[in-house]
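Priority: low. Protein: Response regulatory domain-containing protein. Input follows.
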Amino acid sequence: MTNPRILLVEDSRDDAELVRLADQSLHLHSELVVAEDGEAALDYLFRAEADPPAVVILDLRLPGMGGLEVLRTMRSRPQTRRIPVVILTGSERDEDVLAGYDLGANSFVRKPHEFEAFRALITHLEHYWVMTNLRPPV
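Result:
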């Protein structure tokens, strides 16, 4: 079996680097794949359908196709509808939280502003979604 993969859909290179640093410090032997926009994320997911990621960590505010549209598309396709999706965003809007859950997000988390809090959050997310959560068979 291959190491579990995490698909991070994030257009901010700084935030992606913070996730990468947190991921490396965990030594979970997971592979972090970064897509910088919604189209790249969906291209990756539809190519990887035989070995989907353990979890998709999805930003809402993306260039081009936004995070909610990515989620809507994922949930409309049999090959991606069961992949867990965690929305990780700076949004403070209740409407975004409701829209995310209405479209089938498994979790909605606000990005902390401090590095240590961000690292702790990524540690928690990866431990749960990669090590603890049982994924549906492919």
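The chain has a mean pLDDT of 90. The chain has one domain: 5-132.
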